[in-house]
Design brief:
The complex is a heterodimer of chains A (about 350) and B (about 80). Chain A is an alpha/beta fold and about 350 residues long. Chain A is about 35% helix and about 15% strand. In chain B, strand 3 and strand 4 form a beta hairpin.
Chain lengths: ~350, ~80
């Protein structure tokens, strides 16, 4: 090849993809990044919602990584296409509703389509043999190459010397001797390499970058599917699962209650889509009702919301109930006591 | 100079960045885009996206609950 080889890298914003790109960049490869937004990406959403005025907003780590590396970053919205991965993962779920292996296959497949469309030569990921229990095992990494259709066009620079030669190595686009043979769950080799390259301010590993690996989030998503009678979601559903206290007093509805001011502001944006309640007589949270709620259900929801208001110790709390038609009415209720809110309501 | 308005309110990052990226892809160099967002992270992320993709941030400001980024599309398209 007389021209400069071109690779696209899956850039999550974490350390591994940062290093993987740097390793091939240093061998003269032109690299651009792809970052996928599934809707489940952690990326500081909770922070953005809850701490709006309290702290400096968090950076987007994928953009930060791209800037450190001096590469372009293409952020792709895959929310709709990704649903099939979440609903029917061929290789099943991990400990929670995380379809990690199918997810990696899907993303590498999308990257393979991207390089075909854009005239790039190969794909780079930061995968390391043995790093993750599902998608980064010696027996599953070949599955990613094969099922994505990328095959030998997929290079894992951090672990390449533990794996069969790929086309970029065979063609001399990269020198295998200057790739790495990392394996296992230890982060020490990556941290040493980061230090060698002079990267100090990279994102620290903090329990994964996807809400689907989170037990509590997965449990709320499972509840959503169960009570809707099918595996389905829209982006607003999965965003709302990140926000507020979720309680299901009856099978036909749940109540989402803001836990603090930032969440209240965020939920305000959903007032036209959900029946909502807010306290009038006392300071209290905004709450949304998700589901079909009867008058009796709304009364119960109001008592529940009153429990989370400053009037929880009083005999009477007045609330405003606003319907989907925009019509509001006032409701006075007795707040539920702690004993009247069973643990099973909490999602 | 033409200024295109983009409403990215109620979206959490990176969606405002994606909306900007997709809109910029259809704009001629020199066109200005003004993005209205409610996620404060947009004031960090959209300028970062502009820097790595060769666009110029003309101004960032806040107005009430809105976080606003005014950018000018660079010569190399959105990349």
């Amino acid at each position: 090849m007389t021209r400069q080889p071109k690779a696209v890298a899956l850039v999550s914003g974490g350390l591994d993809s940062l290093l993987a790109v740097k390793v091939v960049q240093d061998q003269g490869v032109h690299v651009e990044g792809i970052n996928f937004f599934t809707g489940f990406c952690v990326e500081g959403h909770t922070h953005a919602i809850r701490k709006k005025e309290k702290a400096k907003p968090k950076r987007n780590n994928a953009l930060w990584v791209a800037e450190q590396l001096g590469i372009k970053l293409h952020i792709l919205d895959i929310i709709e296409e990704y649903k099939e991965v979440v609903f029917n993962p061929k290789h099943g779920y991990g400990a929670n509703l995380n379809p990690c292996l199918d997810c990696k296959v899907f993303m590498v497949r999308k990257a393979h389509e991207w390089i075909t469309r854009n005239g790039f030569d190969f794909i780079v990921t930061g995968e390391v043999v043995g790093q993750r229990p599902m998608s980064q095992r010696r027996d599953t990494m070949p599955v990613v190459s094969r099922e994505s259709g990328a095959d030998d066009l997929l290079l894992r620079p951090l672990s390449a010397r533990n794996l069969p030669e790929t086309i970029p190595e065979r063609e001399g686009w990269v020198d295998r001797e200057r790739l790495y043979g990392f394996s296992g769950r230890s982060r020490k080799p990556q941290m040493e390499l980061a230090h060698h390259f002079g990267f100090e301010d990279y994102a620290q590993p903090a329990g994964g970058c996807c809400f689907l690996t989170d037990a509590n989030y997965s449990s709320k998503l499972a509840d959503l599917w169960q009570f809707r009678g099918s595996k389905s979601y829209e982006i607003d559903d999965i965003m709302l699962l990140k926000v507020g206290r979720h309680l299901r007093p009856r099978p036909n509805f749940k109540v989402i209650i803001a836990r603090e001011e930032g969440e209240g502001r965020f939920l305000q944006g959903y007032r036209k889509q959900y029946v909502n309640l807010e306290t009038l007589s006392h300071p209290g949270p905004l709450a949304l009702i998700d589901g079909e709620a009867s008058e009796e259900d709304i009364q119960l929801a109001a008592r529940l919301v009153a429990r989370y208001s400053k009037g929880r110790g009083d005999d009477r709390v007045e609330l405003q109930v606003s319907g989907l038609d925009g019509v509001s009415h006032r409701l006075a209720v007795v707040p539920l006591s702690a004993a009247e809110v069973p643990e099973s309501w909490y999602l | 100079m033409k200024t295109v308005i983009l409403d990215a309110r109620r979206l959490l990052c990176p969606m405002p960045v994606i909306r900007v990226q997709d809109r910029v892809a259809d704009l001629e160099p020199g066109t200005r885009l003004e993005a209205f967002c409610t996620d404060p992270g947009a004031l960090i992320d959209i300028p970062a996206w502009c820097r790595i993709n060769g666009h110029r941030v003309v101004e960032t400001r806040t107005e009430g609950d809105d976080y606003i980024v005014l950018l000018e599309v660079g010569r190399n398209g959105n990349g």
